[in-house]
């Protein structure tokens, strides 16, 4: 950026060493608790087996009457050992805490009230709760183990992408749900799995409403000065070449907040009404004038 934003903020205390470790553990514990609550309040009482080891525990409870927490421990332990063997001790240690505490929280919160017996509502709100919990676990650089370990092992052995491996495993669980619980329950499980994935993605990518504007004009210097002085935002000049003419030209890139878009367009219009402007969403922006990550 050519100009630092003038709205200075006090420096953040960097999260590293013991403090970073403490925050990570706290996120894993809180995330596991939220995931366990989402499972017990929505998924389990409505028999929604939305993939993973938790989905298998729903099937085991429906088929054999097995306690879901015990089923998850029974599956997580061998998967954790396989993870250490195939993926290394470092990965195994990151999965150990989540693999243990998630079934523990599921066991401790198993007698809570059931907010709804509507499977559609349960799949949506259960997906939100589980996605929020898992997103926090991932933010804490942890894992709840389960079939994600197996997916990474499959990726390493077969060369399949991680996403494909996860789809294959979750698809197998939901197919089993169709046989054990019925086709309709499998459809609800798909909804829950979709919502969970969307919430995790939102937490990973951020909820920012920041925009990125690319401006192509014959008056780039005047526009850049107007943005720097009137909008009080930094910008970057990118060297580009016209695809048709082959001429070298400058493209301005400016990152602005949602509430600044109207002003930005007005500034550009006032300088060059014929300027070509592209505005896209930025999921997350880190740095001066925006969110800073420790």
Automatic annotation (TrEMBL):
Residues of the DUF2179 domain: 233-287
Principal localisation: membrane
Any single Pfam family the record assigns to this protein: DUF2179
Domain of life: Bacteria
Keyword annotations from UniProtKB, A to Z: Cell membrane, Membrane, Transmembrane, Transmembrane helix
CDD domains per the UniProt record, alphabetical: YitT_C
GO cellular component annotations of the record: plasma membrane
Subcellular location as annotated: Cell membrane
Protein's name in the database: Uncharacterized membrane-anchored protein YitT, contains DUF161 and DUF2179 domains
Species of origin: Paenibacillus typhae
């Amino acid at each position: 950026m050519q100009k630092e934003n003038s709205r200075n903020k006090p420096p953040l205390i960097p999260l590293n060493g013991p403090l970073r470790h403490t925050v990570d553990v706290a996120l894993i514990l809180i995330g596991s608790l939220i995931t366990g609550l989402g499972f017990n309040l929505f998924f389990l009482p409505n028999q929604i087996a939305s993939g993973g080891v938790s989905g298998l525990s729903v099937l085991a409870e429906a088929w054999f009457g097995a306690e879901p927490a015990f089923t998850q421990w029974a599956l997580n332990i061998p998967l954790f050992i396989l993870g250490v063997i195939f993926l290394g001790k470092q990965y195994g240690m990151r999965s150990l805490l989540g693999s243990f505490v998630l079934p523990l929280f599921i066991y401790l919160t198993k007698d809570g009230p059931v907010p709804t017996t509507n499977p559609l509502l349960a799949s949506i709100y259960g997906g939100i709760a589980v996605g929020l919990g898992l997103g926090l676990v991932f933010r804490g650089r942890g894992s709840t183990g389960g079939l994600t370990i197996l997916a990474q092992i499959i990726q390493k052995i077969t060369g399949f992408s991680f996403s494909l491996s996860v789809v294959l495993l979750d698809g197998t669980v939901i197919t089993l749900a169709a046989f054990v619980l019925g086709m309709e329950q499998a459809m609800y499980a798909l909804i829950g799995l979709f919502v969970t994935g969307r919430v995790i993605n939102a937490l990973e990518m951020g909820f920012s409403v920041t925009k990125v504007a690319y401006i192509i004009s014959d008056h780039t210097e005047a526009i850049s000065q107007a943005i720097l002085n009137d909008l009080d935002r930094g910008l970057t000049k990118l060297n580009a070449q016209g695809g048709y003419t082959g001429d070298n030209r400058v493209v301005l890139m400016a990152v602005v907040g949602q509430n600044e878009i109207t002003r930005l367009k007005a500034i550009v219009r006032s300088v060059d009404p014929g300027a070509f402007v592209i505005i896209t969403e930025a999921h997350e922006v880190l740095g001066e004038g925006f969110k800073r990550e420790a």
